[in-house]
Amino acid sequence: MTINRGQAAGGKSDMTAAPLAKGAAACHDDLVDQRASRVHDLRKNGGRAEMQRVMWVAIGILAATVASEAGAETVQGTARIAGIDSAVELKTGDGAGVLRYRPLAGSTAWVEVPLDTLAPVLAVLADDRLAFLHAPITRWAGDDLVPLRDAMIARTRTAWEQGRAGTRAAQPSQGAVRTRVRALLQYAVALREAGRGAEAIDTLRQERDANPLTSDWDRAEWSTVSNALANTMMEQGRTDDAVALLDQTVARLGGSPYAINVDLQTASILALDGRYAQALPRVDRAERGFVAMAARMSVVPGATAQFDSVRACVLHGLGRTAEAAAALARIDQAAKPTSRRYAPPANRDLVERAALCMRDPDSLVSVWQRDLDHLPAGSQMLVSAQPAYRQLPFDTATLDRARATWGAPPPLRVLPTRYAPALRSWR
Fold it and tell me: Domain of 40?
């Protein structure tokens, strides 16, 4: 069936995401009726290809909704994404969904935003360009995201217990492991997003302790699980335990290339905790190891920007501000990281993380402001800029000062208070 875009967004007619619609809001119903009539005529006359074109052109005014098995739903519409009039499609299912979009003109491939963790779901809800998707998201996820949170935990736990692959590699580490461990890591993320960090720690520790460390795969997975375990400890305020665990991991891995990731992770945790003098030798050692490894084997293009992100924070904390600025500039100038197997963080995310680590609200606002020029759907900025967003180890005062300076420029939608628990991971 077809539904009125204003109704899909909860009764509010929003013309801002409908660049093809002309005239005032008073014309909205007439435009809907005219296009609905045109679609009816095309169906009657068999004009299938033309009908599809009209459905997409009506975007912003009409959205096509198709219900399927097990409560799944597909919603189609249009919005102006990254400055381009785009076709948009949402598909939801049992504990996971996907948002995808592409320009209306031409045959460009779809850009996909997997909705298999809560952060991108919150980003869609916080995006006024996608207001026509807010009601379908709410039907799927619940008024406060609790039903979706619980469904994600059940889905990822089942995938782990059955040894299935889970979903795509959502983080760099998830491309470096076999399918069962990837599902475990995704289960741990679901627990952490639900505020169940203690359970995630227990589950990850059991996996780590059971690893025999007899093969290269074992070492890759052991180091990856160790990093995930340390991250979760840090989120629980156990920074000393996290650092001790990672130092022990590096010592046991010896000269293995997997020790590079662990060293860099340790430096990042120490920097976020303000222990810059302890972080510097670790980031230096990690980068030296990476450069040596890159001379003899293939590495992810653009990966060196991850070292600069941590280094910028460390140098800034040590008062070496010119060197810190140079490190941030190198991230901006770095090639876009690409990999078919891994999911390397975008350079933009590395700059934002460095700004948060440096506790520099002005730099953080600069990142957010640049986002507005070419804002993709599902952007983390739409979540980080929420007044209720609270996530350890990021400094709350830095976030608050940045938000006070920046305000809430379009298309940012300040989420209702019912989403506050989700924005702080129910902690």
Answer: 2-141
Q: Rounded CA gap, 422 and 427, in Å?
A: 9
What is the rounded distance in angstroms from the CA atom of residue 295 to the CA atom of residue 303? 14
How many domains is the chain partitioned into structurally? 2
Strands in 84-92's sheet, in edge-to-edge order, are 2-4, 62-67, 73-81, 84-92, 97-103, 111-115
pLDDT at 54: 33
pLDDT value of position 388: 97
Residue 297 has pLDDT above 90, yes or no: no
Is 149 in contact with 78 (CB distance < 8 Å)?
A: no
422 falls within a domain: no
Sign for the CA dihedral angle at 107, 375, 152, 340 comes to: positive
How far apart are alpha carbons 253 and 259 in whole angstroms?
A: 6
| 301 located within any domain | yes
The SS3 assignment for 413 reads coil
Give the pLDDT score at 52. Answer: 36
Calpha distance 375→396 (Å, rounded) = 24
Query: Maximum Cα–Cα distance for the chain, whole Å?
Result: 74
**Nearest of 316, 386, 395, 398 to residue 360 by alpha carbon:** 398
> Last residue of some domain: 141, 174, 193?
141
Confidence of residue 30 (pLDDT cuts 50, 70, 90): very low
Q: In this structure, is residue 415 part of a structural domain?
A: no
Full-model pTM = 0.82
Instruction: Read off the pLDDT of each residue in 155-164 and give the average, rounded to a whole number.
Output: 92
How far is it, in rounded angstroms, from Cα 205 to Cα 227?
11
312: three-class secondary structure by DSSP: helix
Same domain, 76 and 11: yes
What's residue 168's pLDDT? 59
Q: Cα separation of 427 and 425, whole Å?
A: 5
Cβ proximity of 28 and 67 under 8 Å: no
pLDDT in tens, 259-292: 999 999 999 999 999 999 999 999 999 999 999 9
In a domain, 375, yes or no: no
The two structure tokens encoding residue 53 = 């074109």
The vertex-129 CA angle with 170 and 74, nearest 5°, equals 60
| Same domain for 167 and 134 | no
Calpha distance 162→146 (Å, rounded):
24
Residue with tokens 């909705």: 115
